[in-house]
Amino acid sequence: MEGMVFDIQRLSVHDGPGIRTTVFLKGCPLRCVWCHNPESNAIQPQLAFHENLCIGCGNCFAICPNQCHALNNGRHEIARAQCAGCGLCVQACTGALEILGKRCTVEEVMKEVRKDASFYRTSGGGVTVSGGEPLMQPDFTYELLSAAKKEGLHTCLETSGYGPLQSILKFSSAVDLFLYDVKETDSKRHLKFTGVENQQILENLFAIDELGASSILRCPIIPGFNDRDGHFNSIAKLANQLRHVCMIHVEPYNSFGEGKAQSIGSQYALKGVQPPEEERVAEWVNRIQAKAHVPVVKNG
Ligand code: SF4
Ligand code: SF4
After folding, report:
1. Which of 3, 106, 112, 150 is the most interior residue, by most CB within 10 Å?
2. Residue 202: per-residue pLDDT
3. Which residues form the 4Fe-4S ferredoxin-type domain (predicted)?
């Protein structure tokens, strides 16, 4: 069983309880305008170019069989549509180029995960599968979570909840805690900001809750998009309707996606939007907490 993985982050402290290893899978059916992992959107491997690390040696120009690299008015441009992802330019480069996304077996990922087993034990941590959207690779995700559980590790699944009901129900047996995104409670706005409606996402959330699966609602709050009272009240109302939600996380906007989008040649829709100040985030937390029956905390 192989999956397309784009990062394995050890010592994570924001992706579930304790110290964790977070496995990021490639592929996502949503296109959130504020996405902070745009390199996860496509399921296939992608070439990233970090302009600030380029020393202008020209090796990539010479080696690419498809002539993807070219200078245009002094700017290094990459014809991405022609790129076959062969990695020859990456090998010839001093560090400005990389291929994002690698096929890994469950055992290869587990080898990385096991390295921090002692931290999981002492901190109450474990392994988190994230993305992208893990529901895009349901078999691999299930096998990985099951392998971790078999070894006695605590498992979290970070998901947008957008996928077939059958897949997410199947995951329940291998997931100790769902980190479930609530991006926008108004369906039309959800469609506008993420590219999909939220009906299926909410149905899936109610279905896993009915099964008794524990979850934390993860709410990205983006200034000028969903930082409004109607949304805050609806988040609280939603949590109050579910029996196994133990917490609400407010995830304040960060602009990490901007540089990442640039490196893979993508447009970033929120160029120039500033991350909120601490006081503003505290106010968001308080406004949700005023109506919610579970604790509301800032995460990240
Ligand atoms: S990965 Fe291969 S095809 Fe793509 S730009 Fe580099 S050398 Fe060219
Ligand atoms: S091989 Fe790397 S460092 Fe050299 S020009 Fe290409 S991107 Fe820049």
Report:
1. 3
2. 98
3. 45-74, 75-102
Ligand 2 pocket test, candidate residues 59, 63, 69, most atoms within 8 A of CB: 59
Domain limits of the chain?
2-43+101-298, 46-100
* Ligand 1 pocket residue status of 92, Cβ below 6 Å: no
Residues 21-78 have pLDDT tens digits of 999 999 999 999 999 999 999 999 999 999 999 999 999 999 999 999 999 999 999 9
What is the domain class of 2-43+101-298 according to CATH? alpha beta
Best residue among 68, 97, 99, 263 to mutate for probing ligand 2, ranked by most atoms within 8 Å of CB: 97
46-100 CATH, one of 3.40.605.10, 3.30.70.20, 3.40.50.150, 3.40.190.10: 3.30.70.20
Q: What is the model's pTM?
A: 0.94
For residue range 12-36, what is the model confidence (pLDDT) as tens digits?
999 999 999 999 999 999 999 999 9
